[in-house]
Recover the amino acids of this structure.
């Protein structure tokens, strides 16, 4: 498993995304739990979830898996709703998440997207959770460049450890300013939906992807994930509901590209020419 520097630690090149995990029948739940266990047993050491995912069902499933693992062997990230972004509600949401996850702390706690609560109040609440030892660090999700600029201008805003946004070959908006700026600020980046989400519904699979995947003897999904990881500078969190898919994702971390291959992909999926944060 290749590694990157993420959240100021040496971390696996991919994490485990858990959107829609825990929302199915017992057979599906058993498959999802086996997939997470396989990932943890084979070098993946980040799990990403949220109170929104199945209204706690994702966190509950994860809690049933990680109780059998040494807690300091992986990082656990969760997120809270923007309408839970006041200091009091942050603590309530966090305590509920910790109970479902069967753990005493989170490595990083994220504001899932920006809402109406002033950012200064949210930062204050998150800093209180750090002081109480309920979280090690905090961050944000789905913030655009202006949001991030405002965030770090506020008291303790520079303590934001990471930002999580949509990123795949068809949604490259963060490359224009967000990603370079976060590198400058030493703020880690998490990219979600490397496959475009929901069976590539939001990502057009063009012939160049199918042809290149065939030439490299990999699947299109493996190629998409490898492309996101190509610069070894961010964490991607593909959702994985089966051991088979987990094995496929892990294998994708070993795929490399030539400069010519990357240029060919850029022709079909151009780099952004302006700011713009896409979300799904």
């Amino acid at each position: 498993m290749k590694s990157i520097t993420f959240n100021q630690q040496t971390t696996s090149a991919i994490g485990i995304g858990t959107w829609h995990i825990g929302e199915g029948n017992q057979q599906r739940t058993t498959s999802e739990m086996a997939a997470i266990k396989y990932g943890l047993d084979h070098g993946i050491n980040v799990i990403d979830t949220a109170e929104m995912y199945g209204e706690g069902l994702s966190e509950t499933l994860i809690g049933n898996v990680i109780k059998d693992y040494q807690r300091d062997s992986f990082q656990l990230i969760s997120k809270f709703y923007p309408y839970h972004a006041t200091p009091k509600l942050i603590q309530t949401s966090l305590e509920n998440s910790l109970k479902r996850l069967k753990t005493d702390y989170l490595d990083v706690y994220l504001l899932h997207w920006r809402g109406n609560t002033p950012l200064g109040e949210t930062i204050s609440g998150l800093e209180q959770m750090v002081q109480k030892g309920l979280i090690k660090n905090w961050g944000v999700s789905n913030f655009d460049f202006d949001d991030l600029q405002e965030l770090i201008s506020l008291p303790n805003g520079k303590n934001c450890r990471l930002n999580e946004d949509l990123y795949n070959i068809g949604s490259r908006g963060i490359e224009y300013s967000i990603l370079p700026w976060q590198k400058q600020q030493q703020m880690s980046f998490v990219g979600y939906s490397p496959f475009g989400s929901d069976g590539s519904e939001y990502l057009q699979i063009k012939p160049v992807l199918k042809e290149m995947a065939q030439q490299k003897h990999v699947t299109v999904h493996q190629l998409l994930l490898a492309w996101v990881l190509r610069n070894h500078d961010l964490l991607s969190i593909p959702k994985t509901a089966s051991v088979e898919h987990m094995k496929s994702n892990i294998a994708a971390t070993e795929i490399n590209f030539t400069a010519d291959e990357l240029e060919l992909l850029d022709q079909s999926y151009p780099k952004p020419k302006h700011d713009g944060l896409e979300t799904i």
